[in-house]
Automatic annotation (TrEMBL):
Name used for this protein in its record: Bardet-Biedl syndrome 12
InterPro entries documented for this protein: BBS12, Cpn60/GroEL/TCP-1, GroEL-like_apical_dom_sf, GROEL-like_equatorial_sf
Highest taxon of source: Eukaryota
Natural source organism: Zosterops lateralis melanops
Gene Ontology annotations of biological process type: chaperone-mediated protein complex assembly; photoreceptor cell maintenance
Species lineage: Eukaryota, Metazoa, Chordata, Craniata, Vertebrata
Length: 675
């Protein structure tokens, strides 16, 4: 066992946090710089622009790093956004606290003053919140691509293109063959007619223009199986209206995900009205990455799209125009699988009794018995939440049964609701009431109607009449970019979900941080404590008089460096020094006008808070506005400061295990006392 003093003057844990957090500085703002992660074992690389994946990929051997990873993963799991902000603030606040320690400021004073300062800022910025019903007015600026602003035009009416039917071998008539970035008039495949000239025709697949009684959400089999092309011009004809304003503002420039999200919202809006809810149903959305196609082929498809083997694809071809009997398995489909109890605790991983690195080759007796059970109930399709035994998969294919493993729980629930299937943990529990009916399967087709054979894995689509499930098919020709595209889509989806859940958003682009910085400066100049917390009242009065200004300025320095980095990453400043000068200028202007919040809101309405004099048209109103989530942003701040203060209050690092010789031979051996 080894013992190391944290050393309050230079606090090793805070230095480690600052060093780790500096790796994600370029992730701030919409102009993120990507990073490559290379696996030393497999030599495979992937492209990232996510702080969660960056920290999760590092080999964190110190306690501070592991706490940082836990904090970041908790933020990412709950909100899917705000992680880069959290990481950056952890770094700058760690450095700020170390500076306070070097000035001999007591730890209790740092903890109390910073905590109360942050709480006061969170109360102050409430005046900037924009209610969702007011977002359209705050963000509405005429955009050339939408000519329907005087009509009853909103986000849910954006999808106007005719849609291809499930199982149809013919391409959709309105599938767009125009490449992304092509400014020529979009042309419908198979016709030389510009898409804009078709808008006056009768639309048969829109609930706003279709013939009464012919809803495209019919629960009859075969009627509800269209797919939406998220990249076509019809996806953004009215993207500037209604919820489209909010989606674009929350996208922070990610136009591809916006168009896909428009397709999802257009579909879910009608179902949401039936439920009396305006929320985005995140549980009703899945993603599938298809390699080998341009990104312009990304689209939204009803049902469940997944990748299958060539042998499974052969089985699917035999399922053409057939309705399938479906079974749902809530666990692993292996001989050794044992569940941990029907009332499963959260965050517990299932453990196999006899792990087999070869994938679990099962005995013939078990295989025959399981297949006999499936065949006795005439099951064609099995969706499994966990892993599937390789032998069982092979035997199932030979028997004409399609088995899909690693299916998300939400997908199982959607198929259960649509087909009447009830999930079982073991096949031995199966009875007639557990088997669902009405599922369908086919090979997934690109928007030009072609079924794809990409070699090892082939995309397939599984659906059922009336299923409340959409799959976002993300296509790319670069394998290293697949996970990046998936992360970007989920980030935007959750931003919109949380915005609707909160019922309000913050103006983005640094508006909230600028008001926090202005408020902190005002607090630092005022006598007395920044809040009414009991811990603050218990601090000695000389401490408040001597340390209040220093500690609050240290807290504010985090937001100032955040704004400076934001300006540098968006090329509005060539250096942090220039960016800091610009931030100071805005702070002085805000203070001079008497109401910093009013000044910041007015600047936001003009198109940006931190506009510089070097902008080509500094006095012109721009159409680029961004918004941020309320709960995600404030929770990222609190988690960042809580982590820094937690590490600050640790006084030692005790290392146990077999690292004695490694520590003895390291340059840091003189810092440890071996017990």
């Amino acid at each position: 066992m080894a013992f190391r003093d944290a050393n309050a003057r230079r606090h090793i844990g805070l230095q480690q946090l600052s060093s780790l957090a500096s790796t994600g500085r370029t992730f701030l703002g919409p102009m993120k710089l990507h990073k490559f992660i290379v696996d030393e074992i497999t030599n495979q690389s992937s492209l990232i622009c996510s702080a969660a994946r960056l920290i999760g990929s590092l080999d964190l051997t110190n306690a501070a790093g592991q706490l940082l990873n836990e904090t970041i993963q908790a933020q990412n799991k709950e909100f899917k956004t705000g992680v880069s902000t959290l990481l950056f603030l952890v770094g700058v606040w760690s450095s700020a606290v170390v500076e306070c320690l070097q000035q001999n400021i007591p730890v209790p004073a740092i903890v109390s003053l910073m905590s109360e300062g942050l709480s006061s800022c969170c109360e102050r910025i409430q005046c900037l919140q924009i209610p969702i019903p007011d977002v359209k007015r705050e963000l509405s600026i005429p955009i050339n691509s939408c000519s329907h602003q005087g009509d009853d035009c909103n986000f849910k009416k954006c999808q106007v293109s005719p849609l291809a039917g499930f199982g149809s071998a013919k391409p959709a008539l309105a599938s767009v063959v125009k490449a992304v970035g092509d400014k020529s008039p979009p042309v419908l495949s198979g016709r030389g007619v510009p898409a804009s000239s078709c808008l006056t025709r009768k639309l048969t697949h829109s609930r706003h223009f279709s013939t009464p009684g012919k809803s495209r959400f019919s629960s009859q089999q075969g009627n509800f199986q269209p797919y939406w092309d998220g990249m076509g011009p019809s996806a953004d004809l009215c993207g500037c209206c209604g919820l489209g304003h909010l989606a674009v503002a929350l996208s922070h420039g990610n136009q591809t995900s916006v168009k896909l999200l428009q397709s999802i919202a257009a579909h879910q809006q009608e179902r949401a009205e039936c439920r009396g809810s305006s929320q985005i149903n995140v549980a009703g959305v899945a993603t599938c990455c298809v390699l080998g196609l341009p990104e312009s082929y990304s689209c939204v498809s009803p049902g469940f799209v997944t990748l299958v083997s060539p042998e499974q694809a052969t089985v699917i071809k035999h399922f053409a125009d057939k309705t399938l009997r479906v079974l749902l398995v809530d666990g692993d489909l292996t001989e050794q699988y044992r569940h941990l109890g029907f009332n499963r605790p959260r965050n517990v991983r299932t453990i196999l009794e006899h792990p087999n690195p070869q994938g679990g080759r099962a005995g013939d007796t078990w295989l025959r018995r399981m297949l006999d059970i499936l065949m006795s109930f005439e099951v064609n399709l099995v969706l499994v939440k966990g892993n599937v035994c390789e032998d069982f998969m092979e035997r199932s294919v030979s028997s004409g049964i399609l088995v899909i493993g690693c299916v998300a729980r939400d997908v199982l629930r959607a198929f259960g609701a649509a087909t009447g299937a009830q999930a079982v943990t073991y096949l031995s529990q199966l009875d007639a009431s557990c088997v669902g009916n009405g599922a369908q399967a086919e090979l997934w087709k690109a928007r030009d109607g072609r079924a794809l054979d990409l070699g090892e894995l082939i995309p397939a689509r599984i659906g059922a009449g009336g299923i409340d499930l959409l799959t976002v098919v993300l296509t790319t020709a670069l394998p290293s970019k697949a996970q990046l595209l998936e992360e970007q889509f989920w980030t935007l989806l959750y931003r919109l979900h949380h915005a609707l859940k909160d019922g309000k958003v913050f103006p983005g682009g640094g508006a909230v941080e600028l008001l926090c910085l202005s408020h902190i400066q005002a607090l630092a100049e005022q006598p007395g404590p920044p809040g009414n917390d009991k811990a603050m009242r218990e601090l000695p009065s000389p401490w408040l008089a001597e340390y209040k200004s220093i500690v609050l300025q240290a807290l504010g320095s985090g937001w100032k460096r955040y704004l400076s980095m934001l300006l540098c990453n968006t090329a509005r400043a060539s250096s942090e020094l220039e960016a800091g000068t610009l931030v100071d200028h805005h702070l002085q202007t805000a203070a001079a006008c008497g109401s910093p919040s009013a000044y910041i809101l007015e600047e936001f309405r003009r198109g940006g808070v931190l506009r510089s004099g070097s902008d080509p048209f500094p006095d012109q109103v721009t159409d680029v506005k961004v918004c941020d989530n309320v709960a995600a942003k404030t929770e990222a701040w609190r988690r960042a400061l809580d982590l820094v203060l937690l590490v600050l209050q640790t006084d030692a690092e005790i290392i146990t295990g077999s690292r004695r010789s490694q520590i003895l031979n390291s340059p840091m051996s003189n810092e440890f006392m071996f017990l």
